[in-house]
Amino acid sequence: MPELPEVETLIRALRHDLRGARFGRVRVARRDVIHGDPRPPERLLPRRLVRSVGRIGKRIEIELSGGLRFFTHLGMTGSLGVWPRDEPAARHTHLIIDLQGQSAQLRFGDARRFGGIWLFDGGELSVGKPLPAVGCDILSANLACFGRILGAKRAIKALLLDQHALAGLGNIYCDEALFEACIHPLRKASTLSADEIGRLWRAVGRILRAAIRAKGSTIRDYRGPGGAPGRFQRAHRVYARDGLPCTRCGAELIRLIVAGRGTTACPACQPMGSTGPSRRRRKTR
DNA sequence: CGCATTTCCTGGAGGC
DNA sequence: TGCCTCCAGGAAATGC
Asked: What's the whole-model pTM score?
């Protein structure tokens, strides 16, 4: 399930593979995964130059010449990448864009189709699903911004998963960050102490940056550029480890449902009550 | 407002 | 081996 580190891994490869590229022939296998501009992609995309590749949270944006913006959201099982033209396309490949003058093509695929492509050129008319909204990218949020958003009276995990508030965290990195910061996923965000907010902010940044270095987590479907799996799943300390001992204290990790998502936490390390700052204060810096 | 529930969808796992 | 059911979840919509 691609979250911020997996999306960042993919766009770093796309920036390289699409540098200076111009779109050529377009084939659409499933039209219902493409939204926004009502004109057919076969007419809209050819001859466009790739200007930039970026992301906010889990949303990928490719700026094309002529003011066309190409957004991708990968949902649960989506993938976007450049492949050699002679490499057989994976099952559930829905859109293929040849790159002019290259023996390579950009492919979008998505087995479960929770993801999609959105094309916009500034025109008002939009068909299909609305582009999922995103707030501030969670890696770009400073501590002050993070703290302001955490003033809401909601379960902290529900808030961290809400892409309108802070964009980029999904179920895996949410559980990992809350564990690292020793905060129970059901704590009301507004009851967190300044110390806890600081701990959580640092934990989120540390985990996301480490996961990007490891090229993301491959649990089942996610594959990085060229089909290579990520490595960060080896570093998971709570996600899907319910019933196993906590790596920090040995207590049995428990499973609960928060915001409709399966959640794993350590009942000893992540108490529902506020954890005092003194016990976990850093010695240096 | 916030929360749980339902919807979309497929492949993998487990039961029999 | 094969069929069935359940489950995973990103995000929006709906009901309370």
From this structure: 0.93
All protein residues with a CB under 7 A from any atom of strand B: A 76, 91-92, 111-114, 152-155, 158, 188, 220, 258-260
Nucleotides of strand C within 7 Å of the protein's CB atoms:
7-13
Would you tell me which residues have their CB within 7 A of strand C?
A 1, 3, 57-58, 73, 75-76, 112, 114, 130, 132-133, 161, 163-164, 170-171, 260-262
Pairing of strands A69-73, A50-56: unpaired
| Cα–Cα distance, A278 to A196 (Å, whole number) | 11
pLDDT averaged over 10-residue windows placed end to end, chain A, 285 residues: 93 97 97 94 97 96 96 94 95 96 96 94 85 93 93 94 94 95 95 95 96 93 91 93 94 92 94 60 38
